[in-house]
Design brief:
Elements (H helix, E strand, L loop, with lengths): L8 E6 L2 E6 L6 H6 L2 H13 L2 H17 L5 E4 L3 E5 H20 L13 E4 L14 H26 L3 E4 L6 H9 L3 E6 L2 E6 L1 E4 L13 E4 L2 H8 L4 E4 L3 E7 L8 H15 L5 E5 L8 H9 L8 E3 L4 H9 L4 H13 L14 E6 L6 E3 L7 E3 L3 H8 L16 E6 L2 H4 L2 H16 L9 E4 L5 H8 L3 H6 L21 H8 L6 E4 L16 E3 L2 H10 L12 E2 L5 E2 L1 H4 L3 H11 L3 H11 L2 H4 L33 E10 L6 H4 L10 H8 L17 H6 L19 E4 L4 E4 H10 L3 E6 L11 H9 L1 E6 L4 H9 L3 E4 L16 E6 L9 E7 L5 E8 L4 H9 L2 H11 L6
Parallel strand pairs: 4-5, 4-9, 5-6, 9-10, 12-13, 12-15, 13-14, 18-19, 18-20, 20-21, 24-27, 27-28, 28-29
Antiparallel strand pairs: 1-2, 3-11, 7-8, 16-17, 22-23, 24-30, 25-26, 29-32, 30-31, 31-32
Helix pairs in contact: 2-3, 4-5, 7-30, 8-9, 10-11, 14-18, 14-20, 27-28
The protein binds iron/sulfur cluster.
Iron/sulfur cluster binds next to α6.
Amino acid sequence: MHTTPARYRQQIDIEGDAYNAVDFHGIDPAALTRLPAVLLLLLENVLRNTQGDEREQAVSAILAWLDQGSSVAEVPFLPNRVLMHDTTSTPALVDIAAMRDYLAREGGDPSMLTPSLPVDVSIDHSLAVEAFGQADAADLNMGHEIRRNSERYRFLRWASSALPTVRINPPGTGIMHTINLEQLATVVTTQQGDDGTWIFPDMLLGTDSHTPMINGIGVLGWGVGGLEAQTVMFGMPTMLRIPDVIGVRLVGAKNEVTQATDIALTVTERLRKLGVAGEFVEFHGPGVSTLAAGDRAVIANMAPEYGATTGYFAVDQNSLDYLRSTGRGEAHIRQVERYIKQMGLWFDPARRPTYTQTIEIDLGAIGISVAGPRRPQDRRDYSETAQALTEIGHVFTSDEDKELPRYPVGLAAITSCTNTSDPRLLIAAGLLARKARRLGLKVPGWVKTSLAPGSPAAARYLERAGLLPDLHALGFDIVGYGCTTCIGNSGQLLPRVQQAMERNQARPVAILSGNRNFPGRVHPDLDLGFLMSPALVVAFALHGDAKANLREQAVQVTAEGRKIYLKDIWPSEQEVTDTLRLSQDPSDYASAFRQASHNPLWDRLEAPAGELFPWSESSNYLQPPPFAAMRNQSLLGRYTAYPLMIVGDDVTTDHISPASAIPSNSFVADYLADRGEDRRDLNVFAARRGNWKVMLRGAFHSRALKNLLCPGCPVGHTLHVPSEQIRPLHEVADLYRQEGQSTVLIAGERYGTGSSRDWAAKVLRLLGVRAVLALSFERIHRSNLIGMGVVPIKLPQSLSEGPSRLLAGDTVELDLDPAELEPRCAVHVLIRRANGATETVKATAAIETMLERDFLRIGGVMPMILDRAFNAHAPAA
Ligand code: SF4
């Protein structure tokens, strides 16, 4: 047994200043040396933020984790800040604004609903690639973005004035994770308490699954749903089951041609094969020290792709070098170093902590890679795209266009925080472009090219390196600083490619430096995509055929007939290092960010003032959602339910609540057109997340989704079983509601995978779905369902196929007694078949913590926040 310590606070002196810090000295030192770094950080957080019995129990539970390398115990976690982007923050802030209204109506004080933690919002998800291949593309795209989103952006400006703890980083400042790396993360932070100044590790939660990117520089943080973020920003800790920790031991060093992207894709492949699902991952071993912090951030970024909650690298000299290279002050860097070393948190390549499971990866064995064409874990050698596309197969029904390949590169996008935040990757792409340009190579006319760096600092070092003209010569002009193609805002394909696709003459492929390539992710009409490093994106763009084997085939043939191979233009490690040394100026980061923050288009938007937001009935972007005025509306209880839909495996949050363009011929478009909108310019669903009426109609509006309840029914429709009518989902949900009939949703494996999209849970609540019964759930979506009061239930595998599968006409009977509901408790599901036969299956409540149980008892996160705001005002008894 481990001993429980008696005191946890110490005073430490850093550079002549005295600080309060957590004291580990009372804890068994042997146990401390065996704990993974991520659990040491959780231990620090628990010691600092809890008291009394709760603290003693949490400390004991973390130490007891060492016995099995696993635990079912839960501990509270309270970060010091929250990160959001425009499409997750808008609905969260709309919820807060609507809750303020409710509070005011009921006689409360709306200002009580102000986040107690700092919240940084980046407006990065709405930029689309409309202009490209021209020097002013970024300005043009920014103009379109602000015009199209002005109403939503005015609301965000209102939020930043009404909620003093919310800071908005306007369009053009960059992608949230890049800004976090370059500007926001302190690694070690200080805060004034009642008892003096505390110093502690910077920790955060973000409403985006790629938040773990910040783990690359030693800051612990991960992605949560918007609803979980709402609880945290109002000062309630999130309850966390002490995670299993997978140790990835890195050995060797990357070779001359390998880039960080290749390592990230390899880690993704290996960890997915291991079956990682929600665990924390921690990198250790001697190979870690060979990686720059920029490389580590690329690897950490892809945590959701390898199934993990985090991908953590502890702080070492390379982390400090990164802080220095991005312009952080020397005094702060010394403070980070002293604190991390004094607390025993400094990375030691020889340390071998206890992990739940360990794998080893030899960095020297990794070569140039791609992943796809449909999943990020399907890594291959870069020569194998043809094989991968052949495996997918396709029957073309039109003759070949002699000039256009059957699998043309439709999009070649240097995009995403993953691979555009690391200067080495962008410099490598620029150097490849330079060599290609000098040889007179050109990108074929059917390829839509774009370069969207994670922040405007990239433009500075690319310019200083003289690489912008080279990138421009190949069409890779900067299109702006935002998510663009990575989130599906890739704009239209070039007409030639679009037409060839519509004639079934060609099947265009996306080539991108992103992290996801699910069908429809980067463009609604594209279901094939390969992920790769920015330099390789340029090489594939030059070839123009996604099936090209660039190991064997020439990238292009010059006008003089010389075959140019990839090795002729691939930049070496040394070239990248030398160019970067000459072009990077640490002062760029803060000054480029500052300049972008004073965006005149943004500043000109007139924002309303006041504690309450002035809603407009005629707005098609902002409407107060009904669930923000709900108190004690639990969906638990005993009931019989029809399935509203039955769906298969791998249903993503994109399927449930799409982010992409609203189709002009859909019933959603009809609704908006009836309200005066131009059918040809309806914007994307993601931009309408402040309007629940649009989002409700957009539920499951995905061509890629199959509703097994009525195969072949139109997009976004389902079967109303009693009347056998097939109608839009929200209409069927209304019919059931009018009949007083409960509904559930039935799904297969990995339900809710993909982005951390709380609207994927909110639409279910709006549709009246009381529970989701699935074979398995993705972590963040499961938590979002609970945040909306919808019960996630894990079905046994026996229901996965064959005769036991649920069919139209079957109903389920559930008895979810609030008094008996516990984390992971058994749930008996009585299935009543359409022919009258019955069977009972033993399922499990997919509830991880007692706090989650409490949310379900009260009806979700918002009723809990409202209760606290009212209680803060309750007169003393
Ligand atoms: S992963 Fe893509 S969509 Fe997500 S924040 Fe990064 S760039 Fe944006």
